[in-house]
Amino acid sequence: MYIQALQGKEEVLGLKHTLILNTVNNLGNLYANQSKLAEAERIQQPKQPLRRLRQAG
After folding, report:
1. In a structure prediction context, what are the per-residue pLDDT tens digits for the chain, which is 57 residues long?
2. Residues 15-20: contacts with CB within 8 Å, 24+ apart?
3. Rounded to whole angstroms, what are the CA distances from 27 to 36, 47, 53?
4. How far apart are CA 53 and CA 3, in angstroms?
5. Where in the sequence is the domain holding 11, given as residue range(s)?
6. What pLDDT, on a 0 to 100 scale, did the predictor assign at position 36?
7. Which Pfam family is one of this chain's hits (predicted)?
8. Inter-residue contact 48 to 15 (CB < 8 Å)
9. Rounded to an integer, what distance in angstroms lies between the CA atom of residue 41 and that of residue 44?
């Protein structure tokens, strides 16, 4: 659900908008809570979060 929200927000707001960064942070926290620490770290790096999500797809 976070990935879908992120993709929709990115289309409307662009990658650098604070709502995009908020959603990326939430997704990273979700991965961390699921013990997917490598994914959490990768997602929360500051460079183009949506591109990284699409590559993980």
Report:
1. 777 877 888 888 877 777 888 888 888 899 999 999 999 988 877 655 555 665 665
2. 15/48, 15/49, 15/50, 20/49, 20/50
3. 11, 15, 10
4. 7
5. 2-56
6. 95
7. TPR_10
8. yes
9. 5
Q: Which has the closest alpha carbon to 56: 47, 44, 43? A: 43
- Identify the pLDDT of residue 34: 96
Angle between helices 49-56 and 2-13 (to 10 degrees): 140
pTM: 0.62
> Could you write out the DSSP letters of every residue in 14-36?
-TTSHHHHHHHHHHHHHHHHTT-
48: left (phi over 0), alpha (psi -120 to 50) or beta: left
What confidence score (pLDDT) does residue 4 get?
A: 82
